[in-house]
Amino acid sequence: MPPISILGVGRTVYAPQPGTAITELVYHAVQAALNDAGLTMRDVDARVTASVDLWDGLTASNVAITEVVGAVMQPEARVAGDGLLAACHAVTSICAGAYRTVLVVAHCKATMSDPRALSNWTFDPIYQQPLGLDDFSAAALQASVLGSLAPPSHAPLADGAAAIILSATAAPLTIRGMGWALDEHYLGDRDLTDSIALRAAAQRAFALAGIADAKRELECVEISDHFDYQRALWARALGLDDFPKLNMSGGLGRGAPPFVAGLDCLIEIVLRLRETPGLGLAHGCWGPAGQGQAVMVVGR
Q: Which of 79, 106, 198, 253 is most buried as measured by Cβ atoms within 10 A of its Cβ?
C-alpha cells in the first residue's frame, strides 16, 4: 500500500447545538482542517462525506452540504456509515490514482430527533421493525449475552462534524493500513459475544501495515465505544485486551455524534502521534450491535 499522508484535521465542539445548522457545523470543521493543513479549497481534488439521511431528516443528506465542502461541480462521494469508512473510501481513490488530495467530512445532529425511532428503521421492516428493535435494544441483547445484567450505558448524544485531508503529497503522518467488514444483518445469525467483522477488518489493516504483534507495536488506540460494554468487546476482537494506551482521550464517553465517531478517533490518533511518534490505530463502527466495522493504522 503506498503511503497516504494526513495533511490536516478539524472538528467542532461535540455537544447539543440546537441553534446551529448542519451546514454551519460542517463549514467550521472543514475550515479548521484546511487551516491546519495550510491549504485552500482550490487544493482539494475530491470529497468523501459521511452522513445518514434518516438522522438528518433529508433525502440525499450530502446535498445540503455541497457548497461548504466545495463540491459544486466537483467530484464527491457519500458514505452512509461511519466517517472512518469514508476515510477508507478516500484512501482507495488516491491509491487508484483518481485524485491526489481528498477532503473527508462526517456530520450528524443526533439530538434533533429520537435515536430509538430512527435506528428502528435499520431493521427488517416485515418481522423486526414491528417488534420495536433498535440500536439500544440490540445493545441490551448483546450486553446480556456477554453476561451483563444491567442495561448498557450509551455515550452522550451530541451534534457535530469532523474533517480530515488526505493526500499523495509526502508528509510525516501517513496511513499504513486499513480494513473494513460487515457482519450478518440479522442479530440471530451473529455471534454477539464476538465481532467477526472487526477481526476481519483488523486482520486486513494489520497485514497492510506489517503489524505482527499489535500490543507491542502500537503506541495508542482509539476505539468507538458507543455503549459502555463495547470497549472491552472491541479490544478483545482487536487482540488488545489490557492494552494500556486504549482510549486515552476518554473514548466516546466524552460525547461524539454517531457516524462522526470513527473519524474523530482518527483525529485523536493524529493529534497524539504529532506529539509522540509511533503507530496508532483508529476504529469506527456503525449499525446494530456494531454490524459494520472499520480499522485504520496511522504512523509517524
A: 106
Q: What φ, ψ does residue 181 adopt, rounded to 5°?
A: -160, 160
59 pLDDT above the threshold of 90 = no
- Nearest CA-CA partner of 300 in 167, 164, 176, 179: 176
Give yes or no: residues 209 and 95 share one domain: no
Cα–Cα distance, 82 to 107 (Å, whole number): 9
Give me 285's grid cell: 463502527
Grid coordinates in use for 75?
467530484
Verify that 163 and 119 share a domain, yes or no: no
Residue 56 contacts residue 161 (beta carbons within 8 Å): no
Considering the domain architecture, whether residues 54 and 19 belong to the same structural domain is answered as yes
The DSSP-derived string for 130-149 is: GGT--HHHHHHHHHHHTT--
231 in a domain, yes or no? yes
How many domains are contained in the chain?
3
Same domain, 100 and 126: no
Which residues lie closer than 8 Å to 263 by C-beta, 6 or more apart? 50, 82, 83, 84, 86, 87, 104, 106, 162, 163, 164, 284
- In the structure grid, which three cell numbers stand for residue 174, read together? 501517513
3-state SS string for 74-113: CCEEEECCCHHHHHHHHHHHHHCCCCCEEEEEEEEEHHHC
Instruction: Give the 3-state secondary structure of residue 296.
Output: strand
The set of cell numbers assigned to 159 is: 451534534
Inform me whether the pLDDT recorded for 60 exceeds 90: no
DSSP string, 9-74: EEE---B--TTS-HHHHHHHHHHHHHHHHT--GGG--EEEEE--HHHHTSTTGGGGGTTTTT-TTS
Containing structural domain, residue 219: 174-299
What is the tens place of the pLDDT at every residue in 186-219?
999 999 999 999 999 999 999 999 999 999 999 9
156-172 tens-digit pLDDT:
999 999 999 999 999 99
